């Protein structure tokens, strides 16, 4: 089941700001999100694994066209490719980023979000940190649908993230303390 080719273009005006300098890039982001949703619908089928550079995935799935995250690569400057389902991984990252943006805006008025990624001999990891309103936070506190740390939110984003992470075989965690939340994900490196 593939989305009709016109669907991303039809919904793009609501997702892509009119002042977006590269509307094609924004439409491609939206198309990947739709591909991720289609992959969820077809969850009993095989994943569509492709090799993708982790820095590209980290930067290209930032949902806010007016800001950029603070992305820190490993200190050795090395690149890393992973094998994953691009649509699902994009859906996971864009939801994590959107949650971080909303929480930071509520806490400090701006999308103050930092992304750091790296790897070990066996795994890769991505950590997203942001300000949040509160003293302590655990993933269990907000994982159930209906629970959220943000005003007027239904808590569905993190439940979706957990479902997608399970499907991809990626471990996730969310902790917070002293006004800073840290979401991390890690998966096996397929290039070793």
Describe the main β-sheet briefly. Answer: 6 strands, mixed
Q: Calculate the mean pLDDT score and round it.
A: 78
Number of helices: 6
Helix content: 25-40%
Instruction: Determine Rg (CA atoms, Å).
Output: 16 Å
Gross geometry: globular
Helix vs. strand class:
alpha+beta
Residue fraction in strands: 25-35%
Please tally the β strands and state the result. Answer: 8
- First-to-last CA distance: 33 Å
Structural topology:
Blueprint: H1 6-15, H2 23-41, E1 49-53, H3 54-60, E2 70-72, E3 81-85, H4 86-108, E4 113-119, E5 123-131, E6 136-138, H5 139-142, H6 156-168, E7 171-177, E8 180-188
Parallel strand pairs: 2-4
Antiparallel strand pairs: 1-3, 4-5, 5-8, 6-7, 7-8
Write a structural description.
The protein has helices spanning 6-15, 23-41, 54-60, 86-108, 139-142, 156-168, and strands at residues 49-53, 70-72, 81-85, 113-119, 123-131, 136-138, 171-177, 180-188. With 192 residues, it is of the alpha+beta class. A hairpin with a 2-residue loop joins strand 7 and strand 8. The strands form 2 sheets. A 6-stranded mixed β-sheet has the order 2-4-5-8-7-6. Helix 2 (23-41) crosses helix 4 (86-108). It has 6 helices and 8 strands; from the N terminus they run ααβαββαβββααββ. The radius of gyration is 16 Å and the shape is globular.
């Amino acid at each position: 089941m593939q989305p009709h080719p016109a669907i991303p273009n039809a919904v793009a005006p609501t997702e892509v700001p009119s002042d977006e300098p590269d509307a094609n890039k924004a439409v491609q982001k939206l198309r990947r999100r739709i591909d991720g949703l289609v992959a969820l619908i077809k969850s009993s089928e095989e994943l569509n694994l492709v090799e993708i550079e982790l820095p590209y995935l980290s930067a290209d799935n930032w949902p806010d066209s007016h800001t950029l995250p603070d992305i820190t690569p490993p200190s050795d400057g090395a690149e890393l490719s992973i094998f994953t389902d691009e649509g699902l991984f994009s859906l996971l990252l864009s939801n994590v980023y959107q949650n971080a943006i909303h929480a930071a805006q509520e806490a400090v008025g701006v999308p103050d979000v930092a992304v750091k990624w790296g790897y070990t001999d066996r795994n890769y990891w991505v950590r997203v940190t942001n300000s949040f309103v509160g003293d302590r936070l655990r993933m269990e506190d907000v994982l159930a649908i209906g629970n959220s740390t943000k005003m007027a939110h239904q808590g569905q984003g993190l439940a979706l993230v957990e479902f997608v992470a399970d499907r991809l075989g990626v471990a996730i965690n969310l902790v917070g303390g002293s006004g800073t939340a840290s979401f991390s994900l890690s998966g096996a490196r397929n290039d070793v």
